[in-house]
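User: Structure please.
Assistant: Input sequence and predicted structure:
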Amino acid sequence: MAAAPVWSVDPRTGKQREQVAVEATAQEVDEAVRAAHDARSALADRAVRSAFLRTAADLLDESKDHLVEAADAETALGPVRLGGELARTSFQLRAFADIVDEGAFLGVVIDHPDDTATPPIPDLRRYKIPLGVVAVYSASNFPFAFSVPGGDTASALAAGCPVVVKAHPDHPATSELVASVLRRAAARHDIPEGVLGLVHGFDAGVELVKHPLIAAAGFTGSVRGGRALFDAAAARPVPIPFHGELGSLNPVVITEAAAAERPEQIGTGLAGSMTLGVGQFCVKPGLVFAPSGEAGDSLVKSLTAAVSDTAGGVLLDHRMRDNFVAGVAERAQLPDVEAPVTPGAGGEHTVSPGFLTVPATRLAVEGSEHDLLLEECFGPVTVVARYESADEITAVLNRLPGNLTATVQLSAEEAAGEGRGTEILAELTPLAGRVLVNGWPTGVAVAPAQHHGGPYPATTSTSTSVGGTAIERWLRPVSYQTTPEALLPPELRDDNPLGLPRRFNGRLENGRQTK
């Protein structure tokens, strides 16, 4: 039977643009994984790795116009948004190159023998080594930043792990183009092109996570798809780490004092956040607590005006559009649910933004039909839960699963420490990996202190997929005991020939800066 073709599709029309590839067979997946496995030694030198990452960033920047044009044709995300995303991706690659050069991620610890300790301590030297080949599953909504050249790939390569990417069917042509750019970057540093494999097709993704030479996996996508792969990773004869980002409601609590103080600002900000990228951000605020009464009414009025002035748009594919239209219609029909701005179909290929309101008490009862409102709906819609008391907020928050983010909008007085600000933060912190005060969750900065993850189902592990510590997902520690200096890796020798930051006999040293 002939392999199924992989088509690039224009979401603005639903028409096929071009055949990009064919879905990979099990044999082709095996070949890609083995080629990546064979390329491991080419990433052993940290200087080569960092240079490779910087070259990749440079070549992506040089190819910007072509890549953005291709991505826009497949995703309808627009050249401005995509240009910014590509710049973010290049920045991330360079940031990981800096991390590789610094070397602190290796976690070098050296303890000399101490016979006076109880029990005695032998000579021990510990650092982290790469796991092996990493499988990366691309996201639909970020064709650059969370796909072939994205954070999973960048951090894995920085750790010294070759990568095999399962391309997302919403942007296969972009995936092929970006993969070719990264392979050109590899070639400039004598790294085999197999260091970055690319496969297409649902079955190929399943084969990939089951391959015995795959050492770990990174995924961004739906709860259903991510959980199936997570279970497959755990069911292998040798289970592997699976770092998946699956879904998030990203609750927002607006206090009555904040709603009274700045209803227009909060309403406008919420509208911009929930409709950004046609509501296709993983950190879109999907559940908002707003007070009943005059202050909440003013806020909802502002939100209504701002959302009404927001144009509709094209979702990433027609399946997502159909799911959105059906999903918001089902939610709008629930008892006590109102739609100040009705979300739904905007045209044959588009959707229109909107929001729903519901009494918070309807969401506090487990097992009711209103549980549907506590499920993520991908697209430009949010649910505003009107509350009468703080207890109603607490009752609903206690029912929520894990999230990527949780936000609170406070008044100036509350932000200064008066009122329930501290108490609300304490309620939100167990729910999410990033907690915001007087901001909006859309937009995930690439920074050392960033954490993009959260309790399940937001993610399947406690790690982050954005920021410098994302590299830790693809490493494992190893200790050498009573090993002669001549046999030790350079990273673990007393004279520190590589100038690495380390902990030496209990004392922190800053590598080349150490006196």
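The chain has a mean pLDDT of 96.
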